[in-house]
Amino acid sequence: MDQHLLESLAHAAGLQKALIEFPDDVAAAAAQALNNAGAVQVPTDPTAEPWPPMCPGIGL
């Protein structure tokens, strides 16, 4: 992975300190996230919820 891309991703995620202290771990996590990004399916219906609505009192 390109170092500039890695630094940009770490900055966007607020992981600057982790990048300095654990650069190999941050690089491994970024690579894994990029490799699995295609597996995440974005809902086509913007009103669809991936889980039931959280309503207090139901099932208590």
Q: What's the topology here?
A:
Layout: H1 3-12, H2 16-21, H3 23-36
What does this structure look like?
It is a single chain. With 60 residues, this protein is mostly helical. The protein has helices spanning 3-12, 16-21, 23-36. The radius of gyration is 18 Å and the shape is elongated. The model has no long low-confidence stretch (mean pLDDT 84).
Category by helix and strand content: mainly alpha
- As a percent range, the share of strand residues is under 5%
The H/E string reads: HHH
Query: What would the principal axes of the Cα set say about the shape?
Result: elongated
Termini Cα gap: 49 Å
DSSP strand count = 0
How many separate helices?
Answer: 3
Runs with pLDDT <50, length 5+? Answer: none
Compute the CA-based radius of gyration.
18 Å
Specify the biggest β-sheet. none
| Arithmetic mean of pLDDT | 84
Helix content: 40-55%
Q: Could you name the key traits of this structure?
A:
single chain; 60 residues; mainly alpha
In short:
50% of the residues lie in helices and 0% in strands.
